[in-house]
Amino acid sequence: MKTIKIAIQKSGRLNEKSVDLLKKSGLSFENYKSSLISPVNNFPLEILFLRDDDIPEYVQDGIADLGIVGENVIAEKEVDVTYLQKLGFGKCSLKLAIANHSDINVLADLNGKSIATSYPVILNNFLQENNINAEIREISGSVEISTNLGLSDAIFDIVSTGGTLKSNGLKPFAEVMRSEAVLIGKNGIAKNPVVFELLQRIQSVLRAEQTKYVVMNASKENLPAILELLPGIKSPTIVPLATADWVAVHTVIPEKDFWDKINRLKTAGAEGIVVLPIEKIIL
Ligand code: ATP
Ligand code: MG
């Protein structure tokens, strides 16, 4: 069978998390920094290490079958690929930003102004949708200093915490798109059995990352109130303890409402709560 190729970022913000995800999915490979291709020892897959900008086109053209890349880069390249899975890392937002003292107040004020960006395609689509006629100045990096240099009236760039904007005397003005890393595939590749298997494994890792395994003790008297709070995958496991009328309850809890759940369990009478990470959840 032809070896499937997956393209990931060679170095940068997505590299480590992409490598981690593939390793947690049970793939064994060397994370060579110097080579472009790394074979996987225990799965029919090869890993291509590329600049993130090249990944969407490589996948569209079938040079790679799969790729891990930010949605922002896919949107900028306007490629025709299949979205297989959102991956939950590399989260950021693409925003328009203006100087703190700018006279721009509403979107329409951008008419006739200049906007510096490294994402001209996404920006152009946004401006067209909003009937705004502004000049796009494409620059490849350090977009945030362009207003100070008098190169543009506004910028359009990736913002995560807003710290870089602030230190350059800018403030966010409008959010145009949110982005996170996604697994994409060449059209039609989802039917390939190797891809299907890899996707199952990746999904089992993602599911596990969003949940915790929780064990707690409770008296039988408090059990109904505790069970009311617990969905579990099917239902919680209840194990008798050596002490009469006490049980241990085992369950999984979604990370997002974790603290809220734990506090409510304590109030309902749960004691000795132990929380464990989960490696994989295979449904
Ligand atoms: P390459 O050398 O591969 O072209 P790059 O410099 O273009 O790398 P990085 O800065 O490593 O790219 O960012 C890769 C991706 O990480 C971005 O396209 C975006 O999807 C995501 N990302 C998440 N948070 C941020 C952030 N604060 N700044 C920039 N990118 C971010
Ligand atoms: Mg890049």
| Alpha-carbon distance between the two ends | 27 Å
What is the CATH top level name of the largest domain? Alpha Beta
State the helix count.
8
Number of DSSP strand runs: 15
Oligomer designation: single chain
Q: Estimate the mean pLDDT confidence.
A: 94
The main sheet comes to: 6 strands, mixed
Strand/helix succession: EHEEHEHEEEHEEHEEHEHEEHE
- Report low-confidence residues grouped into runs of 5 or more: none
User: Fraction of residues in helices?
Assistant: 25-40%
Apparent shape: flat
DSSP strand content: 25-35%
User: Ligands in the structure?
Assistant: adenosine-5'-triphosphate, magnesium ion
Strand numbers in spatial order across the main sheet? 2-3-1-4-11-5
> How many independent structural domains?
3
Radius of gyration: 24 Å
| Alpha-beta content class | alpha/beta
Question: What does this 3D model show about the protein?
Answer:
This protein has 283 residues and is α/β, with parallel strands linked by helices. It has 3 domains: 4-90 and 180-208, Periplasmic binding protein-like II (D-Maltodextrin-Binding Protein, domain 2, 3-Layer(aba) Sandwich); 92-178, Periplasmic binding protein-like II (D-Maltodextrin-Binding Protein, domain 2); 211-277, Alpha-Beta Plaits (2-Layer Sandwich), CATH 3.30.70.120. It is 25% helix and 32% strand. The protein contains 8 helices and 15 strands. A 6-stranded mixed sheet has the order 2-3-1-4-11-5. Strands 8-7-9-6-10 form a 5-stranded mixed sheet. It has a 4-stranded antiparallel sheet with strand order 13-14-12-15. The radius of gyration is 24 Å and the shape is flat. Bound molecules: adenosine-5'-triphosphate and magnesium ion. Residues 9, 12-14, 51-53, 70, 72-73, 90, 92, 158, 160, 179 line the site of adenosine-5'-triphosphate.
